[in-house]
Amino acid sequence: TSESMFLTYYTGTLDERNTVISFASQLPGDLLGIRIRPGEKFTMSSYNFVAATNNLKLNVKSRFRNIFGGGYIFINEVINQSDGDGMVWLAAFGGIEHLHIPDGSSIKVDHGLFVVAKSEFNYEITTIGGLKSFVFGGEGFAMHFHGPCDIYIQSRNINHFLHFINKNIQ
After folding, report:
1. Sign for the pseudo-dihedral over CA of 100, 103, 107, 109
2. CA-CA distance, 124 to 144, in Å (whole number)?
3. Strands 56-62 and 114-118
4. Which residues have C-beta within 8 Å of that of residue 67, sequence separation ≥ 6?
5. Residues 48, 34 contacting (CB under 8 angstroms)
6. What 3 state SS string does 122-153 have?
7. Hey, which bits of 55-94 come out as E strands?
């Protein structure tokens, strides 16, 4: 998942007047904090995880259907099985945008732009255009979400950026 198999835990004292916590990411872009209520479960892309409160459980799920689109085979999932709210912080490559897809509507999102959504919002893997653009345009596959749902996307695609750098170095 491009993450270390080990996580670092930090603890401290609570001083409600002066409590400060800072995070940074290897990606140049926005950070997003999401409150996760008891019983909620979120699915996020593998590059975006930064930190979480210790009452949340992190899982790695296999998504072999993503391999055909050049996407990640594994995707992260964060679950709140505790009695209190938890927080997860995610990084983006570029800016983060919240999208609300109303009932009866849908949206296709390039897998490299997806950041996070509630796990109950299932998606399909589909093509961005028709067969012609898929074969000759290099568009590939996308995640197709159906409303009502809320998703977060990032403005830049890390996969395309890495491909661009690799192509221009050689």
Report:
1. positive
2. 5
3. unpaired
4. 73
5. no
6. CEEEEECCCHHHHHHCCCCEEEEEECCEEEEE
7. 56-62, 74-80, 86-91
pLDDT over 50 at 70, yes or no:
no
Distance from C-alpha of 124 to C-alpha of 56, rounded to nearest angstrom: 27
pLDDT at 21 over 80: no
Asked if the model's pLDDT at residue 15 lies above 90, the reply is no
pLDDT at 135 over 60: no
Question: CA nearest 137: which of 97, 168, 105, 110?
Answer: 110
Q: How many CB atoms lie within 10 A of CB 18?
A: 5
pTM greater than 0.90 (yes/no): no
Task: Name the CA dihedral angle for 30, 59, 161, 159, rounded to a multiple of 10 degrees.
Answer: -140
Task: Say if residues 44 and 116 touch (Cβ distance below 8 Å).
Answer: yes
pLDDT in tens, 30-60: 999 999 999 999 999 878 889 999 999 988 8
Q: Report residue 129 as tokens.
A: 């255009």
Listed residue (110, 90, 109, 102) closest to 46, CA to CA:
90
- Residue 107, CA distances (Å) to 45, 83, 117 in order: 17, 34, 13
